[in-house]
Fold this protein.
Amino acid sequence: MKYAVIGGGNMGGALIRGMMASGIAKGNEIIISSSTPASAEKAALSLGVLSSDSNAKAVSGAGIVFLCVKPAQALSVVASLAGELAGKLLISIVAGIQSEELHRSALGATRVIRTMPNTAVRVRKGVTAIAPHSSCTSEDLDQARHVFSSVGSVLEVTEKSLDIVTAVSGSGPAFALLMLESLAQGGITGGLDPETAKIFAAGALAAAAALVLETGESPRALREQITSPSGTTAAGLGVLEESNFSSIVQQAVRAAKNRSVELSKKS
Ligand SMILES: NC(=O)c1ccc[n+]([C@@H]2O[C@H](COP(=O)([O-])OP(=O)(O)OC[C@H]3O[C@@H](n4cnc5c(N)ncnc54)[C@H](OP(=O)(O)O)[C@@H]3O)[C@@H](O)[C@H]2O)c1
């Protein structure tokens, strides 16, 4: 299978790194195009894949086309490729752009699957939501599952839920990284060197995620187990609760979801 990646930026690059690390695609089976031939070539060189000086040429030899441009460019890029995309499978990772709009922009001749991966596909620990459009076949869905399960886990969802999935899972790693940065900064302020503080902070977030995923217990139950009355954890959690930490994080999720809805209305 040959893959074209339209937009070799952060997420396009992360997906490519993950696919290559998993062994499902070799460098000579992936071709990138970007906004300019020079940037496509630069990205291709750093990733060890092929580059194309135009989107159309990249798409022409591919069976599966990943759309990895920013939302503002998505529909015009697809419309400009309608001829080349005919009969192919287009997998979009673009936030907020509905699959029906993509299908229509490709003049109805392209099978479309909308997905929402997160940035951890780069290290094969991503979570990808897949929402098939009515134009795609069950084989297309299997192929999308095959690709994304090589770079993490896959959940099939309805397209209606993609806005909230985008907020929790697509943007969520950035929210968690802010928590990690803050935790590490607290460690530095308390006397740790930056590298040590970063490792402990990353380990703390990884520990929380591993406990939830591997025990199947709820985050609340696990948190309560490690919070002794009047202990150190209770002292810290008290500060977070006084500052409405949970409500602030929920507001961030709501803002990200609303932005995704806004983007889909503009498309
Ligand atoms: N960031 C995340 O965590 C995340 C998670 C899930 C989904 N997404 C979605 O992933 C998409 C890409 O995000 P990103 O963070 O990877 O953005 P990015 O780093 O800015 O990458 C966008 C890429 O699109 C290329 N591009 C721009 N115009 C183009 C055109 N006309 N033809 C071909 N390529 C073009 C850019 O080329 P140049 O390199 O030449 O500028 C760049 O390589 C977005 O739609 C976003 O909603 C992001």
User: Anything to note?
Assistant: The pocket of NAP is lined by residues 6-12, 33-36, 39, 55, 68-71, 73, 77, 93-95, 116-119, 170 (CB under 6 Å). The radius of gyration is 21 Å. Residues 20 and 248 are 38 Å apart (CA to CA).
